[in-house]
């Protein structure tokens, strides 16, 4: 194990699907990526000794309409405490990449603002790098604009202190940001292409992400889009983590 995937969700099938999505696009083996389900309020993040990088997967949690106030708040605070500790550790901290829920979670708990002004139904959007995004050690490795898979109820309308906006879109101004130097959060799903989002949404058809009368059309609209640039962010993050670990080891 060199990487950890923290998953604040429940359900063996959806957890298995999410794990396969991260393995595929981060181009990691099962030996390299350990999944840890945060499926109860008492769940712990586990030992991080020797971990090169951490992914935080998506979640049914939402800030504007809490999914389960006790479970959601308990796990969110543990994640935010961990993120804060690693950002404050600077060069000694573990790099972190959070997909979807982590964007609103970090903003909400660390001094930003979140509402539902820019929520997006499941679908495809076009994101653009900001000037800072073109210089960022992670997002500078991709081209702009790029296609992304989205689907979220929360939206960040004010970044937390010490955060830098990296990517935006007309539908959702905060698509990706960096906290400190080594924590990234994307509102879109870099672990999803058309097939992956079709599979993921099938577990949450009754959770209010899409009008039940429009499900067939929503699934059809996922097809035929090239999201390879956004998907490549997970591989680039893994590469960044390895490069950083190698540089530290050589000091």
TrEMBL record:
Keywords: Glutamine amidotransferase
Domain Glutamine amidotransferase: 48-193
Claim: Cytoplasm is one of the keywords in the record: no
PROSITE patterns reported for this sequence: GATASE_TYPE_1
CDD domains per the UniProt record, alphabetical: GATase1_1 (cd01741)
PANTHER family: GLUTAMINE AMIDOTRANSFERASE YLR126C-RELATED
Protein name as annotated: Glutamine amidotransferase
Organism listed in the record: Corynebacterium zhongnanshanii
Lineage: Bacteria, Bacillati, Actinomycetota, Actinomycetes, Mycobacteriales
